[in-house]
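Could someone model zinc ion with this protein?
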Amino acid sequence: MLSEIAAATSALSGIKTIIEGFVSERDAAKLQQTRAELFKLLADAWQAVFELQQAALLQQTEIAKLADANRKLESQLAQAGKTESQFQGYDLVEVTRGVHVYTGPADADGARKPPYLCPTCMSKGEHSILNLQKGKSPNDQTRLVCPSNVGHSLGLPRGLWSMAHLGKPPHKEPPNA
Ligand SMILES: [Zn+2]
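Reply:
Sure, complex below.
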């Protein structure tokens, strides 16, 4: 940008010098030469102006792109902050024998109620709320399933579980266990 401005300025000051000479010198040969130089300088000046416009246009596009990227980052940051504060105070708790999840502070009865967060996702800084998936038959294990990755799912001890049986101190066994 600066080099284009410098080119335009020097072309224009060249024109001024020549016009000054043109007024004092009146012979035909000099006139011819002056005219040629004048056209050359005008062409250079227009070229410089054109390049200046192109550079300005390019810069506007770049600025628009940067502003767009900035907006996206700001909204991602706001979202991350919201999730972070939503799950503040969550810690790793054993909600029944051998099953650890992240959950919020204990209620008045000392119970750690859902939502329960997947500990594997939590270790990667992600928040994924576990869903209780009952076994299809009495012998089929009930699980806390991670919606982000089935491989993160936690199997519960045998029994007819519901969320109400989890997170109670001391660990209550489910009915018909
Ligand atoms: Zn997970």
